[in-house]
Amino acid sequence: MPVLVYAETSEGKFKKPAFEATAYGKKVAEQMQTNLVVLTINANDTTELYPYGAEKVISVSNDSLKNFNAKIFANVIKQAAEKENAEVVIIEANTNGLYAASMVAVQLNAGYASNVVALPSATSPFTVKRKTFSNKAFNNTQILTATKVLTLAKNSVGVVEIPVSGTTEAFSPELVTCNLKSEAIEKTSGKITIADADIVVSGGRGLKGPENWGMIEELADVLGAATACSKPVSDLGWRPHSEHVGQTGKPVAANLYLAVGISGAIQHLAGVNSSKVKVVINTDPEAPFFKAADYGIVGDAFEVVPKLIEKLKEFKANNA
Questions:
Q1: b vs e for 41-78, b when ≥16 Cβ sit within 10 Å of the residue's Cβ?
Q2: HSE-up of 248 (CA within 13 Å, CB side)?
Q3: Helices (DSSP H) in 150-265: which residue ranges?
Q4: For 301-307, which contacts have Cβ atoms below 8 Å and span 24 or more sequence positions?
Q5: What is the pLDDT of residue 181?
Q6: Is 227 among the domain residues?
Q7: How many of the other CB atoms lie within 10 Å of CB of 103?
Q8: What CA–CA distance (Å, rounded) separates 193 from 99?
Q9: In terms of DSSP bridges, do strands 88-92 and 3-6 run parallel, antiparallel, or are they unpaired?
Q10: Angstrom distance (rounded) from CA 264 to CA 79
Q11: Residues 235-283: tens digit of each pLDDT
């Protein structure tokens, strides 16, 4: 009974979390002494998954699946799991994945563990470590059902190359029908998105107004980072809601999260707590963010950030 990974694509392309989930699935399969199967939907090049352990790829190509719909995609994953007689199903813990995973679990009558951050500590009973209480704690969850569904938290286990000689075969599932509403899909182009970024530069009300946002964008450009903001900033209309990070916005699990002029409300910290290194720049030494940050600078962002940009540019020029 193999392990099945659903590797998500965006406009036909795989992103880092898909490779991370594939490599994770391969390691789980090795623990269970079984094989890995990867499901893709409208992928441009499935061979990109082979270096990360995808021994077998089942590829769905269907224009009706161009846009994500949780009910339809969950049913496709369920059919793939049944086709392969999968014992473990692994899905990325992004917005789409979390919507679909619970539906997959119900349809497979499977136990479900969300936001998993490590390889199983045991396979009998199947036990995984996962984030809980808004990323403030961890627990070890046992899944006792015959089939298990996991969502893998981004940036939790890393991307590891496990090259194999993979194969790809076509798969044509039956698509369920449901009432679809036509909705506008917000897309950004020409810049790194929060979901894909290893580095995120985020600004708060300490920037005093949208006219000062160029400083954040310049720092992000130098670092190759995505830009983000706190909830008050998006509520004020300084930045689009797509850049709002936190418990009520987009979660961030970056390698580096740099907060400029953000005091650190509980909801904001809960949404960025999974980032590996957190740096804060704030004039208030009592700002709550300093207690959660790995590094902090007490100072005026309008003085600190330009100097930081200057030093980063010098470093890049000297190490080109």
A1: bebeebebbbbbbbbbbbbbeeeebeebbbebbbbbbb
A2: 9
A3: 214-223, 231-235
A4: 301/206, 301/207, 301/215, 301/260, 301/261, 302/212, 302/215, 305/215, 305/216, 305/219, 305/260, 305/281, 306/215
A5: 52
A6: yes
A7: 18
A8: 20
A9: parallel
A10: 44
A11: 999 998 889 998 888 888 889 999 999 998 888 988 888 888 999 999 9
Of 120, 153, 170, the residue at which a domain comes to its end is 170
Residue with tokens 């500590």: 121
DSSP-assigned beta bridge partners for residue 4: 37, 89
* Beta-strand pair 13-14/9-10: antiparallel
4-61 confidence digits (pLDDT tens): 999 999 888 998 899 999 999 999 999 999 999 999 999 999 999 999 999 999 999 9
Q: How far apart are CA 224 and CA 231, in angstroms?
A: 23
CA atoms within 13 A on the CB side of 81: 29
Residue at 91 is within a domain: yes
Domain annotation covers residue 176: no
Sort residue 237 into left (φ over 0), alpha (ψ -120 to 50) or beta: left
Helix (H, G, I), strand (E, B) or coil at 296: strand
How many whole angstroms separate alpha carbon 281 and alpha carbon 134? 24
Cβ(20)–Cβ(158) below 8 Å: yes
CATH code (residue 308): 3.40.50.1220
Separation between Cα atoms, residue 275 and residue 58, nearest integer Å? 33
- Between CA 189 and CA 260 the distance in angstroms is 24
Element (H, E) at 148: strand 148-152
